[in-house]
Amino acid sequence: MTGSNHENCESKSTVARRRWKILAEALQRSSCRDASPDSASTRKFQSFGLLSYDPLGHDFYSISCINSDLAVIVRLLRRDFSPSELTGFNNTGNVCIWPSEEILTYYCLSNLKIFSGKSVLELGGGMTCLAGMLVSASGGPSNMVLTDGNALSVNNVKVSLQRNDLPSKTCSSLFFDDGRESLLSTLLCVLRPGGTALVVAPSRSGTFQRFASMCRPHFMVALVDKYDHLVDQYVQKSAMDPYYNENLHFPLLMILKKLGTN
Question: Which of 19, 155, 177, 233 is 20 to 30 A from residue 249's alpha carbon, by CA?
């Protein structure tokens, strides 16, 4: 028991140090950056390459995914951040578009029928809420709400929505990334019986699987670690990157269907 607790504490400490390193590097960036949208992040592994960026000027990009003709205009904040903007919540989502959002975007666009006529909520979508933006652009959902726990992200998404004239709402999310109990409570609150949630995140030393175990008393749980042959090809190519770490970068998918009757 003692050894297990020590390992858990050490794992949490490692993740915390890594997160704060990302934020510290973001604060210390010089004003000289390359032209890549991902240069807003100092992380070594950037992307699986599923997204295309067409620069429009003044920090705006037209972003599309390789499996869809849909595109949305998104503002990617390319400037230095103050400590108050990056601390408090887990605000690494302000720094870049993460691989989890990239894979979630691909999955949603490959399965647009599941959103048809539904009220859709994206929790913790970061600076772009890209998956929710593109699903909204498809015209399928009856209602779309995009959320994040940081005011800077929420304001940035509002600017992007105005550029696209999309019928979506924004608000602050109600949970911390580290707070699995808070996330579970939020899902139980917002979903009606039979409602579905898509949770996308890397394994991160078993934290994803531990959350799945917490959900099983309340949800039917399906875990997906393979998407399709196209994603497999891009993931295999990414695995050749010396900075790629499957445990940290490859997003697993959890499909939750809330138990109970209406």
Answer: 155
> In this predicted model, what pLDDT tens digit does every residue of 75-133 receive, in sequence order?
987 655 555 554 444 444 445 688 999 999 999 999 999 999 999 999 988 889 999 99
pTM above 0.90, yes or no: no
* Tokens encoding 258: 């809330």
Write the CA distances from 126 to 14, 24, 148, 151, 175, integer angstroms.
Answer: 22, 18, 6, 10, 13
Q: Where are the beta strands (DSSP E) in 49-134?
A: 51-57, 60-65, 71-75, 119-122
For residue range 169-197, list pLDDT tens digits in order. Answer: 787 654 444 568 888 999 999 999 999 99
Phi and psi angles of residue 164, each rounded to the nearest 5 degrees, phi first = -100, -10
Q: How far apart (Å, rounded) are the C-alpha atoms in residues 248 and 233? A: 19
